Amino acid sequence: MLYLKENKQNIQHILAFNLTSGERVFYLDKPQYAIGRYPQNSIVINAEGISRQHATLIRKHKKNDHFSYVIIDGNIEGYKSRNGIAVNGNKIDKCELKHGDIVHFTKEITAHYYIIDQESQGFIQKLTPNCFLTAKDSSLSNLSGDTKLIQSTRKKPSLSKITNLASVVELSPIPIVEINSEGTITYLNPSANLKFPDLEKAQLQHPLLQGLMEKQNYKNGSLVIREVNIQEQSFEQHIHYLANQKLIRSYIFDITQRKKAENDLKYHAFHDGLTGLPNRTFFDQHIALMVNNYQRHNKLFAILFIDIDSFKNINDTLGHGIGDRILKCFAQRLTSQVRSSDLVCRWGGDEFVVLLSEIENADEAAKFSERLLKTFEHPLNIEGHQIYLKCSLGIALYPDDGQEAEMLLKNADAALYRTKESGRNHYQFYNPEMSLEIAENFALETQLHQAINNGELILHYQPQINIKTGQVYGLEALIRWQNPKLGLIRPDKFIPLAEKTGLILPMGEWVLKTACQQNKKWQKMGLPPLRISVNLSAQQLQQPNLIETVENTLQSVGLDPEWLELEVTESVLMKNTALASQTLQELRNMGVYISMDDFGTGYSSLGYLKKFPFDTLKIDQSFVKELNKNPQDLSIISAIMTLSRGFNMRVIAEGVENQEQLKLLQKLDCEEMQGYLFSHPLSPEEILNYLLKFNQQKHLIFALP
Question: What pTM, to 2 d.p., does this model score?
């Protein structure tokens, strides 16, 4: 039995730091050590996360002249470190260190504690349930009440070699395992014992050693790198085949965090962060494989593009937080309607894509769409709000609507576009006419960007007639597009494109300025002053500088405000009622006249008469068109006439095309009219001739009954 007397010559206590800049080894023999960033400390560790006085080591004397070190969080005055310390992964305030303990100062900075017996070339450790060093057939000598000397049956190196080993291999935080040609473990460093306590028991059955013996015929110095998963941890094992020494040595690196980071990156690369659904990248890869598979087996599938109707209004009204929750709920309901073999992806924003696999015919896609629309008949309850969602769908079928992924997606999107154009909240199957229309619109949109700068926009003017006085009361300015290739393009063809692209704003300013300039020009020519009407778009009415724009235009042209009338529709007013009311009132105070176009077609038109400063109501042509066939239209126009008198407003009936309509409107005491019966919209040259001729004859240029 061997008793050790602990002194500087025989027993060496070592603290080996693993720093980002490298390894630092401290041989401990003093009664006390201060560890931290402070330059006066015994052990100075200048690194991020280390406190000025991060920890203190105090030597603790035991029986038979033995001693150990106790580590304390902070300094001896009781001031703790900022980030604390942990021993073997457990947070501590004070702890007596044992051979092989790992001290964590920060997440990145650790230190290994070792006790080396230089005389007998072994290691001292405390007896605990988790021994850090073990050896088969070891001979243990009693040192003190709870300390033993581990003497391995493996061949012992020389004193100089063990010193080198202690500072390089034994102190290495990297687990190192060595087996011989018979598969027997010949060496484990402390890190390997600590990390894999069951290695010696499991021997070749351990995941780290499985399969190593099968490749012994590798040349000397051959290196094999493989990944090994042990429970929930991942390791990269570097295996060196040392044929000359009949040894196989492994270095094991813990890559659990790296693999987790890689998996997280991979997940986020292919999934939407909000809904957790596969994203566009995942879909692109999946559908490419699916097309190849279905081509070989002659199967059918469907792609559905899905868009939440009016989602922007929800975000603007309830906020983006609730908007995000709605997207999650929408994704859940969408996923609940598909089979396990189908795929649901978030395409971006409020757009989703569903891939219905292995369908028999188009009816299956239609039934799915109807089922989905039905699920949204029930409201979502979010933070006290009952929200009824609606959605639009576009469907493309493989292979009829395309045999490549890109073409199928493009055609499904075209079908969705048609669904939204035709009223939303339903579905459309793709047909080739949609692509042709989209291509035409795209070409038209491209040319529209150049139309303003190229001077291709023109104004036509339609007279407004007072049939009692026989006078031309005013003119409405109507924009036209004279395209060099396509000829004269009507506004209902290009105005929606202008609104979609934002070109409606510069276009609207051009119309306002051109109409005012033309009116002023006619006045300078000596023609009687006429009020000219210009339509305002919803986007124009929302602009904060609209008042300034109108004012500057009138001043630059020299036109009095009373000769300008601005027309708005109910749909324009509904975008922002409060702002519209304030803006129109300021324009009215400026002296500009305000007109409500298409009156009677909205749900709240009568209520708007009290909210807005209208001078003129224009009866929508839909009432005038069927006036001689529908008695209800007569009643509506009669009511409008009565209301207008009560509010002291003038009324203009639009779309008057024949004598019968004229007679009926006369019976209702409607004095002002506009329509083809009097004149089509005319070019500036044509309207000038019209006005000159009218001015000369001093009476109406059509035969009154």
Answer: 0.53
